[in-house]
Design goal:
alpha+beta, 11-stranded antiparallel β-sheet, globular, Thiol Ester Dehydrase, Chain A, about 230 residues, about 15% helix, about 40% strand
Length: about 230
């Protein structure tokens, strides 16, 4: 159950400093996970027939070497053995000669389409043999927000173009918000925890906390935290 494909990193994948953008990395990871899901029997339509859909709860990646514009790269992804209520999936971007450029991991959950509640993993069965490779030896834990003063940066009104086919703000759309909060600071580690979904019309208040261990971003809708992010 390891999927591999080649893609060209076009100019539009990069920011004004010619760095592969966080949104592009998340989009690449999302796309290969979607294609691979179809191949192993847990794709969007298959899940929808069971009145279920996938939701990303956490994702992180580390840039080991920055890819270049118009470079052809190899993208790999594979799921871990499923847990009780979540599913881990790793990603990797490599050069054509096998040099690792970006590594990442993610944690997914399954939601019922009718009442939007978290479901156990019993109804989700992969087709194939697990790949036991891991990108990170340590457990993928939650982001803990430092107890320091937050600086409110801006409020984002969630609009139609932010939504995906699950009816909520797509995970890749958060990346640009986060980069605007930290003012496009250079980073090699990028991590997001998604805590509550954002729907059209929500006012997403984005705040920054600067620490010696990088920068933290919090997004809140009313009195609920929608996401936490950590960059360094």
């Amino acid at each position: 159950m390891k999927y591999s494909t080649k893609i060209c990193l076009y100019n539009s994948y990069f920011d004004l400093n010619n760095r592969l953008s966080a949104q592009s990395i998340l989009s690449i990871f999302q796309d290969v996970a979607s294609v691979h899901g179809e191949e192993i029997g847990v794709g969007y339509q298959t899940m929808l027939c069971k009145k279920l859909y996938w939701v990303l709860s956490r994702i992180k990646f580390d840039i080991l070497k920055m890819p270049q514009i118009n470079q052809t790269v190899v993208v790999e992804t594979w799921p871990h053995v499923k847990g009780r209520i979540d599913f881990d999936r790793d990603f990797k971007i490599l050069s054509e000669d096998g040099q690792t450029l970006v590594v990442g991991t993610s944690k997914w959950c399954v939601i019922d389409t009718e009442n939007r509640t978290l479901q156990r993993t019993d109804n989700v069965n992969y087709v194939g043999e697990y790949c036991l490779d891991v990108n990170y030896a340590e457990r993928f834990g939650k982001i803990v927000l430092p107890m320091q003063n937050k600086q409110h940066k801006f409020t984002w009104l969630v609009g139609f173009s932010d939504l995906d086919h699950n009816g909520h703000m797509n995970n890749t759309k958060y990346a640009n918000l986060i980069l605007n909060v930290v003012e496009n600071k250079y980073y090699t580690h990028f991590e997001i925890n998604f805590l509550n979904e954002c729907l059209i019309g929500d006012e997403l208040n984005c705040s920054l906390i600067k620490t010696a261990d990088g920068e933290y971003v919090e997004g809140e809708v009313g009195d609920k935290t929608a996401f936490l992010a950590h960059l360094k």
